[in-house]
Amino acid sequence: NAGVMQNPRHLVRRRGQEARLRCSPMKGHSHVYWYRQLPEEGLKFMVYLQKENIIDESGMPKERFSAEFPKEGPSILRIQQVVRGDSAAYFCASSPPRGTGGYYEQYFGPGTRLTVT
Amino acid sequence: RKEVEQDPGPFNVPEGATVAFNCTYSNSASQSFFWYRQDCRKEPKLLMSVYSSGNEDGRFTAQLNRASQYISLLIRDSKLSDSATYLCVVNPAGNQFYFGTGTSLTVIP
């Protein structure tokens, strides 16, 4: 069972460009979370999605950031018109639906390191 | 008040030592608790889920104190490979997971 997959692992964008980050959850997991980690800081929740639905986006900046988790394919975190302050590691995590047994745990992908030049 | 608070450390301990980390949480209705470890520039990896009765996995013991709203992680017989940042995670009823800023541990030969 492959773990959570993220790509690209490293992404360099110039200011003003768009960044697209992809996340494929673990098999059987229908819940996806996105987190951002700035250098020397802790993980900050951004958004929680289930298939075709955004459940909680309270951690997302109001502008330039959007996320989706379509019926088919990976979850996408999109950052438009990137600025230097967007440079960070972006981690995706997945978890199984509640009530499927076991503990409600999150498993993380390797992250995408975004550098804005 | 932050949802989850941890002492950032750093904790520098010799090999073989026992070290303990505490983490406090603000939401008394929180239901699920976890410890993750994060190595430098890597993703967090689940170390332990914390059960209400406390649980042990080899050299690692996790405890939950609901009355005082804290969880702890005890590492016995520290190894060099235990050097990492340890993240406390709390899941209140609902969908969000709150992460502490992490406690840095360095095990010294």
Topology:
The complex is a heterodimer of chains A (about 120) and B (about 110).
Chain A lengths: L4 E3 L2 E4 L5 E6 L6 E7 L5 E8 L2 E4 L8 E4 L6 E5 L8 E8 L11 E2 L3 E5 L1
Parallel strand pairs in A: 2-11
Antiparallel strand pairs in A: 1-3, 3-8, 4-5, 4-9, 5-6, 7-8, 9-10, 9-11
Chain B lengths: L3 E3 L4 E4 L4 E7 L6 E7 L6 E6 L4 E3 L2 E6 L4 E6 L8 E8 L6 E2 L3 E6 L1
Parallel strand pairs in B: 2-11
Antiparallel strand pairs in B: 1-3, 3-8, 4-5, 4-9, 6-7, 7-8, 9-10, 9-11
Can you tag this structure with a few keywords?
heterodimer, A: 117 residues, mainly beta, four-stranded antiparallel β-sheet, 11 strands, globular, B: 109 residues, six-stranded mixed β-sheet, five-stranded antiparallel β-sheet
Description:
The complex is a heterodimer of chains A (117) and B (109). Chain A has 117 residues and is mainly beta. Helix content of chain A is 0%, strand content 48%. Chain A has no helices and 11 strands. Chain A has strands at 5-7, 10-13, 19-24, 31-37, 43-50, 53-56, 65-68, 75-79, 88-95, 107-108, 112-116. In chain A, the strands form 2 sheets. In chain A, strands 2, 4, 5, 6, 9, 10 and 11 form a 7-stranded mixed beta sheet that branches. A 4-stranded antiparallel beta sheet of chain A has the order 1-3-8-7, with no helix packed on it. In chain A, strand 5 (43-50) and strand 6 (53-56) form a beta hairpin. The N and C termini of chain A lie far apart (37 Å). The model of chain A has no long low-confidence stretch (mean pLDDT 91). Chain B is mainly β. In chain B, the strands form 2 sheets. In chain B, strands 2, 4, 5, 9, 10 and 11 form a 6-stranded mixed beta sheet that branches. In chain B, a hairpin with a 6-residue loop joins strand 4 (32-38) and strand 5. The A-B interface holds A 31, 33, 35, 41-45, 48, 55-56, 58, 89, 91, 103-111, 113 and B 32, 34, 41-46, 49, 87, 89, 91, 95-102.
